[in-house]
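[09:14] KT: can someone run the structure on this one? pasting the chain below
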Amino acid sequence: MNYRHAFHAGGFADVIKHIVLVRILTYLQDKQADLAFYLLDELRFSGAGDPLAALVLCGAHAADRVMIKGEWRLVGGTPLGVDVARLRAEHGEAARVFCEAPRG
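[09:31] RB: done, structure tokens below
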């Protein structure tokens, strides 16, 4: 059996799936749910059989989206409301100070 998404995208089942997904996420957002979504499209996840087994056995190390208390905090692997460049600079400076501190 050969599945081609282009032939099925926008079909009845695809539309229903997206409507249900949007309603679930909207409901969970109102309930202050904590969720994490992972991308499983890397080669190391292939052949696991099911998505949960892929996460556990292959070690997903970074979430793609995270919702905490009903608010998206991480989208596309990037934290929202965080100046990542400033955070990296501060961390680098703290690491430099630590490495240069006298030992003894």
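[09:33] KT: thanks! The chain has a mean pLDDT of 78.
[09:34] RB: yep, looked fine to me
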